[in-house]
Amino acid sequence: MIRYFTSNPASKVLCSPMLLSTFSHFSLFHMAANMYVLWSFSSSIVNILGQEQFMAVYLSAGVISNFVSYVGKVATGRYGPSLGASGAIMTVLAAVCTKIPEGRLAIIFLPMFTFTAGNALKAIIAMDTAGMILGWKFFDHAAHLGGALFGIWYVTYGHELIWKNREPLVKIWHEIRTNGPKKGGGSK
């Protein structure tokens, strides 16, 4: 578990844990909190992106947020393992808050206090930026910040740059799946 399901730039295994650590959690409470936030925002993001694009963005977000975590750990010299889906979930949260900034949110145990999604996103980014700068260790603030920034970027620019331009690659993939790879390496 530690080798493949926790990400750490000091580990001998660097790449696969960047994705696999997104599926491991420290405790039942850690997993429950992450899954509650994902469940709360997943229907909105699936309505915005669709199922296939959501899955691609979510898995990419796990890798990207872990990469930002690696960079933060190397830059500060604060090595240590990270795990959990919160970086990818921050992508989902930030994407929804960016697309629906006037949406009303509340904290589960304090439903009487509501705030806009845009303000929530600003507060989360400010908290994670402060956590990174001040060296707070309760969360992986670099992964959270990387996930949030990726979510903002993706719904603002990424959909147009990446998803809408995937057609040539999808056609090649379907051709390979249907007819198999071309023999002889040349064109017909």
In short:
One of its GO terms (cellular component) is mitochondrial inner membrane. Residues 18-158 form the Peptidase S54 rhomboid domain. With 188 residues, the protein is mainly α.
Please supply descriptive tags for the structure shown above.
transit peptide, mainly alpha, EC 3.4.21.105, 188 residues, two-stranded antiparallel sheet, transmembrane helix
Give a structural overview.
- 65% of the residues lie in helices and 6% in strands.
- The chain is globular and about 60 Å long.
- The longest helix is centred in the middle third of the chain and has 26 residues, at 51-76.
- It is mainly α.
- A two-stranded antiparallel sheet has the order 1-2.
- The protein has helices at 2-5, 16-20, 28-49, 51-76, 86-99, 117-134, 141-161, 167-179, and strands spanning 104-107, 110-116.
- It has a single domain (1-177), classed as Rhomboid-like fold (Up-down Bundle), CATH 1.20.1540.
- It contains 8 helices and 2 strands.
